Amino acid sequence: MSRCVKCGLCLAECPTYRLSLNEARSPRGRLALVAALAAGEVTADDVGAAQLSSCLFCRRCQAICPSKVAYDAILDQGRRYTRKRLPLKSRLAVGLLSRPVTAALLPALARVAGAWLPGDSLPARVARRARKGGGPGPGWRKAAAGECLG
């Protein structure tokens, strides 16, 4: 964490900061929160968990950083501090989704599960869309490319 020189180059690259213009939801703000958690200056609460979980893990900040801050590893450390506050069901979901292998299996799992779910349920609709080759919703490709973030 001490490698961050607070130059601000990451701010222009961070989609959540660009959308919210809230320093706490920027890479610098999240790094400061993790540093404060590690030093025991603050305790993990719902606000801190929300700030850390708002990161999309696109790693744009890490790619642009001149100091090569290992943002993903630091954020993982911060999420470990706040994860203890989550209900068991949420901790399990975060644990599964944060692993690339299980996250990669989710589309296939949605297709299989969609066959057994009622036709109007959200997972069934997502599965139908996945079978058709579509994304999560209208305009998702533009949002993924950052075109909707202004």
Order of helices and strands: HHHHHHHHHH
Terminal CA distance: 29 Å
How would a crystallographer describe the biggest sheet? Answer: none
Low-confidence stretches: 140-150
Helix run count: 10
* Gyration radius, in Å: 18 Å
The structure class reads mainly alpha
Which outline best applies? globular
Q: Can you give the helix content as a percent range?
A: 55-70%
Rounded average pLDDT: 76
Strand residues, percent: under 5%
How many DSSP E strands? 0
Oligomer: single chain
Note down, in words, how this protein is organized.
The protein has 150 residues and is mostly helical. The chain is 61% helix and 0% strand. The chain is built from ten helices and no strands. Helix 3 packs across helix 6 (71-83), helix 4 (46-53) runs antiparallel to helix 6 (71-83) and helix 8 (100-114) crosses helix 9. The longest helix is centred in the last third of the chain and has 15 residues, at 100-114. The protein is globular, with a radius of gyration of 18 Å. The model is unreliable at 140-150 (pLDDT under 50).
Comma- or semicolon-separated keywords:
single chain, 150 residues, mainly alpha, 10 helices, disordered C terminus
List the helices and strands and how they pair.
Layout: H1 9-13, H2 15-20, H3 27-39, H4 46-53, H5 60-64, H6 71-83, H7 88-97, H8 100-114, H9 122-131, H10 140-145
Helix pairs in contact: 3-6, 4-6, 8-9
